[in-house]
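Q: Sequence in, structure out?
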Amino acid sequence: MIWRWFGEQMPFAIAFLIGMTLAAILCPRACAGTWVVATVGSYHFDRTNEHNERNLGIGIEQDIARDTRFVAGRVKNSEWHYSNYLGAAFDPIRITEHLRFGAMVGVINGYSNEVRWTADKGSNDSHDAYFPIIVPRASYEISSVGGNLLYMPRSQNRGVLVLQLKFMFQE
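A: Exactly. Output:
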């Protein structure tokens, strides 16, 4: 069943998890502040179209400053294609010790021209083209577990909520 969820990406996901686990065992200090992130699903506010809402994926968040993390990952997107994302998450608004708000800024690919909200959409419909994103997010973390809730605005509809679960490597 899990094999169907990840399809041909299962070897990538397994290699990623094995590599991160080995890194945590062999050099725990270097992995301090490293979170493994699992994208688990989404909710589309536009219910008129059929979207993939089982957006399984895997990624990483690495602390680079007090409120800033490097983020990268791969996910099965709402258009049933794979997307790669790369960027930084900045969460400066602290509501409680565990709840923070901010944004993720970076690039993503895997979407058709209709989804891209940039001025230069190009003339082809290549899902390989990267485009910039700014995504508001909330992050809730307790000890070494947590979650992210991201709001992805869309030009053609009212947007998407994305849920990610995560765990942190401990020293």
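Residues 2-168 form a domain with the Porin fold (CATH 2.40.160.20).
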